[in-house]
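Researcher: Please predict.
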Amino acid sequence: MDLILSELNNTKIHRSKIHRMQPVIARKIIAFQELIGVAHHKKSAREAAELLEIPNSTMQTWRHQTNYRQASKELIEFFSTPVGADFLQRNTMAVMKLMKCGPGGTRGMQEYLRNSGLDNFVASSEGAIQAFWSRCEIYIISFGESEEQRLALKMRRRKITAGLDEMFRGRHPCLVAIEVVSNYILLEKFTEDRTADTWKKELEPRLNEVNVELGQVVSDLCGAIRAVTKDLGAEHISEIFHAQYEISKATSAPLASQERHAENALNKAEENIKKIKETPIRLGKEDSKNRQIEKQYEIEQAVTVRDDLKVKFEQKAKRREEVKAAVREMSQIHHPIDLKSGTLQTADGTERRFNEQFQIILDCVEAANLSEPSINRVEKARRAFDAIVAYLRCFFAIYAAFVEGLRLNIEQEKFFNEVIFPLIYLKMIWRRFPKKDRERHKTLMQDLEVRMRDGPWPEELKLKLMKNGQEMAETFQRSSSCVEGRNGMLSLNYHRFHRLNPRSLHVLTIIHNFDARRPDRTTAAERFFEGKHADLFDSLVANVRIPGRPKRQHHDIQKRLLGREKRRVA
């Protein structure tokens, strides 16, 4: 019937795709092979597929599927059997349930072994699992330390930019230092305090161990971090997020509250006008006309009040939007290039643009008559932006010296300043843009790419200049988001395990450095040391013994039976 209707309407029937489970597929393939392989009942492939109610093309796709990346022949054959497919189905489901809904730690491991059926082959008692994880921790620490020493010996010594911050959980702060370009964790340790001396005592040996110098430190305006930065001879970068946060915290809630109160007053005025209009007038011979005049006057007065409240509401709403837009604009300003034109900025130009936005904020704060604590927060943000401008002056001085050291002619230097560096920097920050900003800056990106392609120089020189531009673009930093994100992960782990002892914390650090991979499949250690290292997980599989097969505890059963007999006799 459907076919007839489709022919009449000249339309196609869109059938939903059938998704079959892997155990079903394995059993269908085995049945198919038996049907076409038995001599006295041998059938053609099409006949066998029709008996199994499977399209022949689908069956051939199943049989000749070869997109296995690194699996051995034996493993492929095992998972092609019904038993292997059932095991794969159960094992994958056990992992998904554990990751999404299950507990962590020892209990999670026990639940996984039980759900997957592996507890028949691997001991799953609490003692066995804890001993197993202890062996894993010891090996992971040994692996991380040995690989770090090996890679550090081969790495060129260079200056780095590190993000520094503290994570507060429990009685002691955890000092966290991360190299911002590679995301390699240099330091992650709970200490007694967070003074500049403690920072220096913990951080300086780590820099020597990995054969690097501290060139820049990006953080908030913490006094201890700024002091240790100065002691180590590095340049401090005040990050923009905390500066913006101080302005938002000082203005967002008070301005929103004022706007809300103005809106409520306006709504009440609207309701009052409606109420007056709907109130009936008592008709009388003598004063009906006077009452109508009074009502009209009362309505006009209420409308006047409503109009005044509407003007105040619009002013307060506009004030809040202006502050919000100014804070957002500061983020757009804080770049070495102008994101609208792609030209290289200057420290004076950036300072002037910052001051324009700050003047808007200060005017709104004064007009809103905010409290003294709010004003103090805005002043604190002003100091942070002054520090940002000071860093920009330092960066542009470094940039000028860097370009001069390249020894380019006038045309090549102009090409580097106007095309190479803006293009490399824009590509570096491109993935951080929201979709709306990507659409806005798409034309600039395409224009720079065209100018790069049409540049009248050999490809070797362009590649060399791009590498130099990458180095300079990575030098400019404005955020310590890598440290903030890591602090969040540590906080989650702390809540998960209720504590973080030094060995567990060290293990988490090594796993982050040597096992967590970006979409390009590189680890933080590979990016930091600029070299390959052994695979951590494969090394664990090859060198750490898993728990043995579970044993039947006969003596426990005998004791239990003996206890029951004694209780029965008594």
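Model: Residues 1-8 have pLDDT under 50 and may be disordered.
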